[in-house]
Amino acid sequence: MTPLQKRLLEIITSIDAICKRNGITYYLGGGTALGAVRHGGFLPWDDDADLYITRDNWLKLKDKLQEELPEHLTLVTSELFPNYRNPLCRVVDENSTMFYNSRIADETPHGVQVEFFILDPVPDDPTLKQKYFKNLWLYIELLVSNFTLANDRLPEEVTDTKAYVRNRIKGKLIGERKVLSQLEQDLFSYREEDCSTFCLRWGQRQIVYDKDIFQQARYVQFEDIKLPVATRVEDQLRTDYGDTWMNVPSAENQIVHTSMGNIDKSYKEHMDYIYAQVNLPKMRKDLLRRKTRNVLKYNHRVVLDKETAFLQKTEAELRIQAILAEYDQLEQDFQQQNFAAIADAFSSYISLQTSTLFIRRDVFISIDDDALYMILFSLIMLGRYYDADKILKVRSNSGLNQSEQLEELLKLILTIRNIVVSRYDDTLSQVEDDIAAFLNIYPHQSDVQKADIVASLRKAEYDFSQLEQRIEAAQQMYPNDGEFLSLLADLYYLEERFEQALELYERAQLSTSNGIVLLGIKEKMQKLQKPSAAGQD
Questions:
Q1: Does 260 share its domain with 321?
Q2: With the C-alpha atoms ordered 422, 423, 428, 434, is the resulting torsion angle positive or negative?
Q3: Closest-CA residue to 216 (of 90, 60, 57, 39)
Q4: pTM recorded for the entire structure
Q5: How many CB atoms sit inside 10 A of residue 43's CB?
Q6: Using alpha carbons only, what angle is made at residue 324 by residues 342 and 395, rounded to the nearest 5 degrees?
Q7: How far is CA 183 from the centre of its chain?
């Protein structure tokens, strides 16, 4: 842990004690939950902490926090601090300093902070649900005065900029607080027992969870203590981060927040200087004016993005026709199950079709259905079912009907996803029949092979020679996939062939980004008294 993470853990520990004393349920959320499951603690690069809590539990907790937090910890909400314009609630350590550019003018404590994200019930009725999401964006866009929420991760029909302008004018006439209160009454009146989903009260993304994900908390190891995660935390992480949540991102994709801080010095020692140099009321007005301009500009940006995507789509369609004309052995490679060659030949198409711009704008590159089927089937067999799924969703959202072959691919993807989820939430025994049936038809699909091998290793009895040969065959088929090396090492570890296991673990950790696998390697190497070189620290 870094010194900052130690301070964050101290804050979480104080919150956890209050929740336990008062019978209140909360969960690690966002990157903190991801760190708990994938790293056994904080993400190595993380500089904040996120907690999730249902609205009913938050209404119980907020008063208890004010009453029971240690003196140096302060609860920050928009109710308690009028210039704090944010849907997130924070517990801030006043003995430290942490300034964020977006919050310099909100006149709240500026220290190391832990954030609460509230889970609100969402109505099941489709018409009410659509209205709910439009109002949620509008409410948070009006509430937050220092940055713009409208972005291309939100559905286009949600970001109604005209409604934003109307309500800003309305706020000038009847009072901004009254406008926000009207929206709050509409949004936060749905009862948990009447709804089947929760939505994260955030605004930058429309994140919706099955309510069953957040029931009884599961306590897991987090650094040197146990902390609660969601009942089905793997499903939560899949919703938050997608099918590849278990993979450790490259350094350039690791999210670090921009801040200035000193964990050993109170922010109060800096405030006199800031107040002398900065006209805070003027800054708040300037930020709000800039924010309003940016909201109005958003529609123009959407149009520009669409035009850009159309030009790239036209170019890509010409390129895909040229590839198909030159690559005359597509069907031959497909019949010979040379899936890697197919994925490599169409890598530029796959990369563009799964790009953020094309996915968020539902731009589909026209391609012959038979060729598309062979490309997507190859991705699925290679373990990239999530990329195939993205492409099929864009195709569907663009208004095209799925052929029978493509519908079959969707069923394959669903089966694989369910098996992968079972692997990570330790319920493989419940899908043994699905695994056997799948491998009987598609014996080389990498994810299902891994799940089947993991299930075999967990059994009291297994055929060592048969399992060894099977893993070695899979390793030869997927030579760059370190997970198969790790599974072979696990087999040797169980057989107490520790030298062979160590050698394979050392090789495996250099050829996989799967954080769950890396954590397992680290734990086993520590048991063998040889710390992991790559590790998770």
A1: no
A2: positive
A3: 57
A4: 0.86
A5: 22
A6: 80
A7: 28
CB 333 within 8 A of CB 342: yes
Q: Among 480, 437, 479, 486, which Cα is nearest to 457's?
A: 486
Question: What are the two backbone dihedrals, phi and then psi, of residue 219, each rounded to the nearest 5 degrees?
Answer: -90, 125
Residues 311 and 207 grouped into a single domain: no
Quote the CA–CA distance of 454 and 474 in Å, as a whole number.
13
State the total domains in the chain: 3
b/e sequence 195-215, b meaning 16+ C-beta within 10 Å: bebbbbbbbbebbebebebbe
Q: Is-contact 198 122, C-beta < 8 A?
A: yes
pLDDT in tens, the chain (537 residues): 899 999 999 999 999 999 999 999 999 999 999 999 999 999 998 888 999 999 999 999 999 999 999 999 999 999 999 999 999 999 999 999 988 877 878 889 999 999 999 999 999 999 999 999 999 999 999 999 888 888 878 888 888 999 999 999 999 999 999 999 999 999 999 999 999 999 999 878 889 999 999 999 999 999 999 999 999 999 999 999 999 999 888 766 666 666 677 888 898 888 878 778 888 888 888 888 888 888 888 888 888 888 888 898 898 898 888 888 888 889 999 999 999 999 999 999 999 999 988 888 889 999 999 999 999 999 999 999 999 999 999 999 988 888 899 999 999 999 999 999 899 888 899 999 999 999 999 998 999 999 999 999 998 888 999 999 999 999 988 888 999 999 999 999 999 999 999 999 999 999 999 999 999 999 999 888 655 444 444
Query: 54: helix, coil or strand?
Result: strand
- Which residue(s) pair with 208 in the sheet? 199
Buried (b) or exposed (e) across 490-525, using 16+ Cβ within 10 A?
Answer: bbbbeeeebeebbebbbebbeebebbbbbbbbbebb
Instruction: State which residues form the domain around 473.
Output: 460-537
Interacting residues of 518 by C-beta distance below 8 A, sequence separation 6+: 248, 509, 512, 532, 534, 535, 536
Residues 312 and 359 in one domain: yes
Whether residue 9 is found in the same domain as residue 112: yes
Provide the 3-class DSSP secondary structure of residue 375: helix
Name the residue type at position 365: I
Q: Is residue 326 part of a domain?
A: yes
Closest to 345 in 3D by CA, of 374, 387, 317: 374
Q: Is residue 381 part of a domain?
A: yes
